Amino acid sequence: MKNVLTVLLASSISISAAYATKIKGKVLDGQTGEAIVGATVFLEQSGLSTRTQLDGSFEFKGLSAGRDKVHIRHMAYAELVQEIEVKKENTPHFTFQLTSSEQTLMEVTIKGQRNGGDDDPSARRLEKNASQIMNVVSARAIEISPDITVANVVQRVSGVSIERNSNGEGQYAILRGMDKRYNTTLVNGVKVPSPDNKYRYVPLDLFPSDMLERLEVYKSLTPNMEADAIGGVVNMVMKSAPRKLFFQANLATGYSQRYFNRDFGSFSSGAVSSKSPYELHGKNYNATAADFDKGTLDYTYKKPTPDLVGNLTVGNRYLNDKLGVILGLSYQNLYRGSHSIFYKSSVNNTNPNAIITEKNDRQYDEQQQRLGVHNKIDYRFNANHRLSFYQMYVNLNNLQLRDAVNTIYNGQYDPSIGKSELTYVTRTRKTEQQIYNGNLQGDHHFLDNRLNFRWSGVLSSARNEVPQNTTISLDGIEENFQRRRTSLVNRSPVTYRWERNTDDDRAGYWDLAYKVPLAANKLELSTGGLYRDKQRSSFYNNYNLSPIASEAKHQYGVDFQDYTGLNLTVSNPTGAVRNPLTYDASEKTTAAYGMFNYENDKIQMIGGIRMEHTNQGYKLLFPDGEERPEGSRTYTEWLPSLTMKYHLDSKQQLHGAYYRALNRPGFYEVVPSRVLNEEFWERGNADLKHALADNFDLRYELFPEPSSQFLAGLFYKRIKNPIEYTFQPDEIRGQDVYYMPGNFGTANNFGVELDYIKYIQKFGVKANYTYTHSRITTPKKSRVINEVTQDLDPILVDQTRPLHGQAAHIANLSLLYKDANRGWEGQLAGSYTGSRINSVSEFLNADLWQKGFIQLDASIEKKFKAGWAVFAKANNLLNTPMELYVKGTNPENDKIAEKIVEGGNTLIRKDLYGQNYILGLRYSFKK
């Protein structure tokens, strides 16, 4: 009997399964056609529910045939209830369109919600509708990415690579192989000054990524955009006031794997004086050792506290939606570091194949404290008039301790044989960089919305301060070398250095646009311009504190137990402020443009011309014999552009653009200063010219679904008077060689870009690849055999090479997963940057190249009810080293114990950074 019941039960299940069926469908925005992710789909009769996936799709299995009612709910849309028929087989796929929950009853219309690029479908729509050729990263994509700074976010964009700082974090963007100097950084469409002490490009690691509503990368310009952007533009669009109450907070902690098995080196920075004795007591003051705080000599080595990352954002609208307010606060306290090995060579114009003579082993420990604050207030007087005021402040405080052991091989190429001279150099450095931006804007419409007038008043300031930068040098002879052993002696001065620079910008923008009444087509004529007054102040001073003359040496363990015990006297009591790096400079920019925008059902054309007039000058406060203590340059450029977009159909289009752009030298580059860098002397070039470039772009754009895309583009740039840093002889002194900027004829840069995004239910893939080829010709030192004397005579020869910083191959691949029903979301993101020139040598075939670099990162998030989520991020999982090399080698290098010769190349530098991990909690509330 039991067996009979079993057979009957199995038969019943089989029969039910035979009549069971499944249905599939998609949920879209009724106005934009965008996929809606995370909508709840509920079947009334069966009681089943699910959520839509990355592409807006959903699926139910095991349903019985018949009629049912489907309920679809999403917090931003009105609930949809619709009756459907489930067939035994071949049930058609359903498509449901939702409308916004916000209704305007007076006009009897329903308005769809259009996000400002804060999710992926909105970002794709912005790319599709943009006049310029551009890429957009949405706020949601940033939030779930492994990145916590804008510098690391931007590397995910096609055609973009990053230049890293000493701890491996991204710092500067390189667009389409064009060095960071050729790119412009904007905040809400307005240029911000750079705190960098040398250059005008902005370090993107200042900005916490959670401040952004979206990140835009423009690869072509229109006449109403500032023209100092040959490579492109990075525009950070900050969060704006939402339509209803919004609150979000996250708190995370983490650790660097580098400090799992070693201590973190730090120093006492609290009492570091921001001003030198010269500034505190006057120019005639004679400083003593007591004037220098010993906190920079007071080292500690211990495990660092866990990292801390936090963000708070709150916004709402008041007074019947007339007043909007948003406030954001972000803070990061991170412990990072690296291990670097430098190999110095005797490369010169008689020996292009480097013989390694020194090894420099460095340990970097850095504490980064990053603060970001921003707020925006906007007031709508009525439909035609609106005012807004935006403020942003970012601050990066970096405390770095660098320990370095330098080994000179003394002709013995194996350091294990014989004796080697050693130098132990340690440096403590506190660096504070900050940017403030305040922007008052007005938007006014007249003549039934045909005439639009917009204006902005901008006040910005950027500051860089490096107070009491301290370097200690100890000498010793190797017997069985260990750090801080008693044989170390202090013979060299302890140096204290103060550096500070401030850029203050005051700017005004205006734009006037008129829509010409036409029957079927659209035509808008516009004009506008800007005026910017930039003022820079630069200060540099240093003091040398030497061992007391009566003592032959200071021996560690005998004369002093730690560096605070060094017995020193000031060698230059009035300091060294009288140098060309103490100067004032200014730059006044005036611009005006005329532009047309024509559009019909198939084509859009935007064209016009922009004029930019530049008046740049400097004045050395202490010329001290410089032949050009003051300098100025004035020039005007007329910059045409034309953009065309042809709609093949509703989902695909061709996008082409031509524009002319310029690149202005930075103040540091034109001031005739001389300064000793880590390994060489640097100098400005008062004769440096600005660069001009003609830029061409063509891109095929396919948007098959709201969240998907395929982009394939070509670009070409022809640059006149490109600016490159090379080693050059001093034309005045002749015998000296400096690393300095120069103009070098005409350079060419062209490439191909591919960008692909696709979602299938719970899975998605984002991939891009860029090939770039560039050429520039610069002079190099070499020698040729004299046929008469048979000696090697020095000559200059031209060498053609890629542009500095340009990698031939750049690629990104991200694998995405999202289970909206269970609240899981994650990604595995890989980034590859091919080999590129890191430093240009003065000698033929001796440029320093960076090896191809792969970085693998990951992130995961789990959402819970009531707005809570847990997330984790991991960076640099492969711990790929950053390696620099020169092409070619010398047989003598094979004798070195370490393997530094591979594939015919000689290793010059190797950096290891370690993995970093973050685990956090997020809470979001939307009314």
Indicate how many domains the architecture comprises: 3
Low-confidence stretches: 4-19, 102-115, 348-352, 411-418, 479-486
Which architecture name of the largest domain does CATH use?
Answer: Beta Barrel
Query: Terminal Cα separation, in Å?
Result: 61 Å
Count of helical stretches: 6
Radius of gyration, in Å, reads: 31 Å
How much helix, percentage-wise, in residues? under 10%
* Annotation, overall tally of beta strands: 53
Give the biggest beta sheet: 22 strands, antiparallel, barrel
Report the principal-axis shape. globular
Pfam families: CarbopepD_reg_2, OMP_b-brl_3, Plug
InterPro entries: Beta-barrel_TonB_sf (IPR036942), CarboxyPept-like_regulatory (IPR008969), OMP_b-brl_3 (IPR041700), Plug_dom (IPR012910), Plug_dom_sf (IPR037066)
Domain Outer membrane protein beta-barrel: 574-881
Keywords: Cell outer membrane, Membrane, Receptor
